[in-house]
């Protein structure tokens, strides 16, 4: 059982969920920060079968912010995707907690499922910034293949070890990667390098790794990006 508290948006009354989107917020945020987006997506007729699970990161000190405690999926030592200065233990711990939530969906023991099981192939794991890093790690290392990963304004951590950590079932992973080209926090080239790594180093098919650029968008989201995310979800976890 995961220790993470979650905000859950189930399909409207009388509709059984047949798919799930997990979405992890960014540094210093909470599930509430993305609840409006989840509500908006849930109201689309094409996604009315999806339940939205928004976990909350634990509160812990963050080195980059002078050791100040805040909601964080892992410690950030440097904002440089190539420095190699990473909190490996924190990254793997949070990834394991998301996997526990996925297993609860698989087993039908998750809150609000009432015994109804949702298999991994009907689950998309997504996140923004720091949460997107956890989403990518989870999608690549979960033993049962997930339907896809939605990675917004983020990067892939643990690149030196990910080839050894990844699950064999991840070879056909579908990834939606989105980034603003004016991102002042997680640089646009970090997203570009992640896409290149997924395709060239991990061998994911080019057509399975979608990369969308949003001109002049900073470290944020925009309506066009949310529409593109919805389109990805419609393909990855369509109504049955």
From TrEMBL:
It catalyses: S-hexadecanoyl-L-cysteinyl-[protein] + H2O = L-cysteinyl-[protein] + hexadecanoate + H(+). InterPro entries: AB_hydrolase_fold, LYPA1-2/EST-like, PLipase/COase/thioEstase. It comes from the Eukaryota. Residues 14-236 form the Phospholipase/carboxylesterase/thioesterase domain. It is found in: Cytoplasm. Its EC number is 3.1.2.22. Its main location: cytoplasm. Keywords: Cytoplasm, Fatty acid metabolism, Hydrolase, Lipid metabolism, Serine esterase. GO terms for molecular function: carboxylic ester hydrolase activity; palmitoyl-(protein) hydrolase activity. Pfam families: Abhydrolase_2. GO terms for cellular component: cytoplasm. GO terms for biological process: fatty acid metabolic process. Belongs to the AB hydrolase superfamily. AB hydrolase 2 family. Hydrolyzes fatty acids from S-acylated cysteine residues in proteins with a strong preference for palmitoylated G-alpha proteins over other acyl substrates. Mediates the deacylation of G-alpha proteins such as GPA1 in vivo, but has weak or no activity toward palmitoylated Ras proteins. Has weak lysophospholipase activity in vitro; however such activity may not exist in vivo. PANTHER family: LYSOPHOSPHOLIPASE-LIKE PROTEIN 1, LYSOPHOSPHOLIPASE-RELATED. This is Acyl-protein thioesterase 1. It comes from Pseudozyma antarctica (Yeast).
């Amino acid at each position: 059982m995961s220790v993470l508290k979650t905000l859950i948006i189930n399909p409207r009354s009388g509709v059984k969920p047949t798919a799930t989107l997990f979405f992890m917020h960014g540094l210093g945020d909470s599930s509430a920060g993305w609840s409006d987006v989840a509500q908006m997506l849930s109201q689309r007729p094409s996604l009315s079968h999806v339940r939205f699970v928004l976990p909350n990161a634990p509160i812990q000190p963050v080195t980059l912010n002078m050791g100040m405690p805040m909601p964080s999926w892992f410690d950030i030592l440097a904002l440089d995707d190539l420095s190699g200065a990473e909190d490996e233990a924190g990254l793997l711990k949070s990834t394991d907690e998301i996997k526990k939530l996925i297993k609860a969906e698989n087993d039908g023991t998750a809150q609000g499922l009432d015994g109804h099981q949702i298999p991994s192939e009907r689950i998309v794991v997504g996140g923004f910034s720091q949460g997107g890093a956890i989403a990518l790690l989870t999608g690549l290392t979960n033993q049962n293949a997930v339907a896809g990963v939605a990675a917004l304004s983020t990067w892939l951590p643990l690149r030196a070890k990910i080839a050894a950590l990844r699950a064999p079932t991840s070879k056909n992973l579908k990834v939606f990667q989105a980034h603003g080209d004016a991102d002042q926090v997680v640089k646009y080239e970090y997203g570009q390098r992640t896409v290149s790594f997924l395709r060239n180093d991990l061998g994911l098919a080019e057509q399975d790794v979608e990369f969308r650029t949003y001109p002049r968008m900073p470290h944020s989201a925009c309506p066009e990006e949310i529409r593109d995310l919805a389109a990805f979800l419609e393909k990855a976890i369509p109504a049955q």
